[in-house]
């Protein structure tokens, strides 16, 4: 069964694909390497997906506001998101319970999924 990807379901396709990829990569990290790699992939993937949700939420709110308020709102949310992400990454890295390599792989989940989705769409369209 082929799923048609369009603007209406693109976000859902990216999230579902990222969650599936996260599960596969975490399981592979556990089976092929160690539990620390699995935990690193899970932590990084969770952070990446949460950031993706947050960015989408902020963009939707910005587009519904007046331009003067939107700028201040975007700047405040950007600094808050960056600070919170940095704080979470600091605790993950300094805890010693997570593999740094696994963390980097997990943080790349959204990017890997978007590249794969783009290649799929291009090949399906005959390009």
Description of the molecule:
The protein is an all-alpha fold. It has one domain (11-117). The chain is 83% helix and 0% strand. It contains 5 helices and no strands. Helix 1 packs antiparallel against helix 2 (35-63) and helix 1 (10-32) packs across helix 5. It is flat. The two termini are 21 Å apart.
Q: How many beta-strand runs?
A: 0
Shape: flat
Helix percentage: over 70%
Separation, N- and C-terminal Cα atoms? 21 Å
- Say what oligomer this is: single chain
Radius of gyration: 17 Å
**Strand count, sense and closure of the main sheet?**
none
How many separate helices?
A: 5
What's this model, at a glance?
By secondary structure, the protein is mostly helical. 83% of the residues lie in helices and 0% in strands.
Keyphrases for this structure?
mainly alpha; 127 residues
Task: List the topology elements.
Layout: H1 10-32, H2 35-63, H3 67-95, H4 100-107, H5 109-124
């Amino acid at each position: 069964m082929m799923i048609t990807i369009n603007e209406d379901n693109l976000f859902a396709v990216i999230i579902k694909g990222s969650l599936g990829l996260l599960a596969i990569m975490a399981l592979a990290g556990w089976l092929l390497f160690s539990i620390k790699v699995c935990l690193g992939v899970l932590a990084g993937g969770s952070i990446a997906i949460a950031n993706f949700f947050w960015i989408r939420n902020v963009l939707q709110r910005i587009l519904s506001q007046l331009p003067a308020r939107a700028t201040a709102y975007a700047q405040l949310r950007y600094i808050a998101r960056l600070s919170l992400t940095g704080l979470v990454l600091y605790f993950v890295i300094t805890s010693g319970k997570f593999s740094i390599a696994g963390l980097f792989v997990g943080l790349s989940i959204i990017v890997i999924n978007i590249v794969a989705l783009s290649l799929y769409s291009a090949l399906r369209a005959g390009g």
